[in-house]
Each structure stands twice: as structure tokens, then as C-alpha cells.
Amino acid sequence: MSGKLIWYLAAVAGTGMMATLGAFVREVSPGSEFTIALGRFGIGLIGLLVLRAVLRKRRREQPVRITRALVGSGIFLPLFVVAYFKAVVSGTMANAAFLLYLGPLIASFLAAIWLGEGFNRTSGLLLGSALLGTLFITEFRLPQNSDQAESVIFGLLSGLFYGLFLLMNNPRLEGDTNSFAGISVQFLVASLVMLPFVGAAGVNLTGSDLLWIAGIGVIHGFAALTLVISALGHLKTIEYGTIAYGEPVMAALIGGVFYHEAISLLQLIGCLLVLIAGIARVFVSDSPAAASGIAPQPEPGPLPES
Predict the structure, then answer these.
(1) Which of 80, 138, 149, 165 is the most buried (most CB within 10 A)?
(2) Is residue 126 part of a domain?
(3) What is the pLDDT of residues 122-141, one digit of tens each?
(4) 3-class DSSP state of 305
(5) pLDDT tens-digit profile of 172-218?
């Protein structure tokens, strides 16, 4: 566990930063969600390129290999953001948030079955507790009409794309997705995917909007996503997935402290469940995967380069 502690801390720091995204988005003019996403990835790319230029003077960096895993992660990254925005616009933020956080569960299941990571009863219990806590925090409700049903569909898509993004960054998939060069490629692909959405929606920003988007790009793009993707390269998908559920906890606390949003007893219980699961995930060692009844599968062969 001690060798992974730095990457657990990176995951906590990255998800903690991303939890503040809502506070920044609220300061930008309504209807600018796609522009915000483009700024997040584009400015993040610029930050990484600057960092790589500085580090290149100290060490020689190997050229990145472009594989399907690398390109796929760059595609799924903006797709889950776009689907999440659509879910929020057509329904409630709470429902959209819960469905988005089905992503770590989907990714953990696929990693266990397809990549042979497996998971034991303890890992499954911790992940399930974190998911249950998120359900309590968001107070998810079934749709009552066609508009809400549309939100659920987009929410499920956001969770699926988020899960695939996490899976594509799994270290068992060849593609060097977690190096600075690999993360730069993901940001570049994500920016290119967002361009058509921004072109269709149009851009109408004020000077203040630009400052907030710049902050989002630096904090939630360059810093947060770099930490998260780096952590994904050193943790099992289920390990990162359990930590990732801390984001809605922090978002709920930020809403309560800074925006005076009411936090119910059920939400407090959910926060405790997620925090306990996350802390336990760091300090509880894994037992053999076979204890869960899911035996590890052979590692897949390398994905062909694109």
C-alpha cells in the first residue's frame, strides 16, 4: 500500500479540485457549457506543453505511441462531459450527478472481467458503499415525465463514457496514456472533439467569463485532470473508482458552506459512507481476487496502433 500512497493522494487532490468545478461554472454566463469544456481541455493542453518543454531540458522524453486506447480516452473524456451537461439541462443536477458516478462501477466491472484485475469482497463492498453513499447524497429519483426520461438517458450515457474513459487509462492497456505526452494527446483529441459542439452552440462571452474559463482550464483541466490520469496509471480501476466518489461529497460540502444549500440527514449519512469507504480503500490491502469468485483473466494483447 505504501508504494501507492502518493497516487492515492494524487487521486484525492485531483478529484478534490474537480469538486470545485460547479462553483466556477456558476460564474460564467449561462449557455456557455461547451465553451467551458473546450477551455478546460485547450488550456490544459497548453499547460502540459509548457510543462513538457521545461522538463525536456532536464531529461529526454520518449516519443509517445498513438494507440486506440490513447485516442479512445481522448474521445470519451469530452463525450462524458457533453452528455453530463445535457443531463443537467434536461433534468436535475442531483440525478445527473448520480448517473455520472455509475462510471467508476462500470469501469471496475469491465477491468475485472476484460483486463483480469479481479476484485475481492472487500473491494466490492467498499465500492458499493461509496456508490450507495453517492445515491444518498444526490437523492436520486426516478423520472416522472418524458423530459426527465431524456435526462436519465443522457445521464446513463455520461456514466458509460466516464467509465470507458477510466478504463482506457488503465495501465494494463498499452498506450502510455499516463505520461505527460500521453495526457497531452488526450487533451488535444478532447479539444478537437469539442470544436463542433462549440461551433454549433456559438460563443458569447464577457471579459469576466474569460477569466473564469482560464481558471477552469488551469485548475480543472491542467492540474486536476493531470493528477487524475497520472493516478489512473498506478492504481487499479476499482481503487481509483472508490476514491472518485469523494468528489460529490466535496461538492455537497462546498454547496452547504459557500452557497448555504441545505444538507439533509440522508446526505450527511451518504457523505460518511463515501468518506469511510475512501479511507478504508487506502489502508485495506487486497486479498486474492479469487475470493470474490471472479478469477483474473489473462491480460489482453496490445492494442494495435492507430
Answers:
(1) 165
(2) yes
(3) 888 999 999 999 999 888 87
(4) strand
(5) 876 666 788 889 999 999 999 999 999 998 998 999 999 999 999 99
Please say whether the beta carbons of 255 and 97 come within 8 A: no
62 Cβ neighbours under 8 A, 6+ residues apart: 181
**One-letter-per-residue 3-state SS of 129-148:** HHHHHHHHHHCCCCCCCHHH
Q: Is residue 235 a contact partner of residue 7, using CB atoms and an 8 Å limit?
A: yes
Using alpha carbons, select from 239, 277, 189 the residue that is nearest to residue 5.
Answer: 239
Phi and psi of 305, rounded to 5°? Answer: -70, 140
User: What's the pTM value of the predicted model, to 2 decimals?
Assistant: 0.83
Helix 121-138 to helix 237-244 angle (10° resolution) is 30
Domain annotation covers residue 235: yes
Asked if residue 108 lies in contact with residue 127, where contact means CB atoms within 8 angstroms, the answer is yes
* Residue 38, CA distances (Å) to 69, 79, 220 in order: 21, 12, 12
Burial class of residue 108 (count of CB atoms within 10 Å of its CB; 0-12, 13-18, 19+): buried
CA distances from 95 to 137, 144, 168, 198 (A): 10, 12, 25, 25
Does residue 273 lie in a domain region?
yes
Single out the residue of 304, 285, 251 nearest to residue 94, CA to CA.
Answer: 251
Structural domain for 122, as ranges: 2-292
Please indicate, yes or no, if residue 54 is contained in any of the structural domains: yes
Q: Please name the residue that has the C-alpha cell 434536461.
A: 90
Domain count of the fold of the chain: 1
Question: DSSP code of 172?
Answer: T
Q: CA-to-CA distance for 276 and 104, rounded, in angstroms?
A: 17
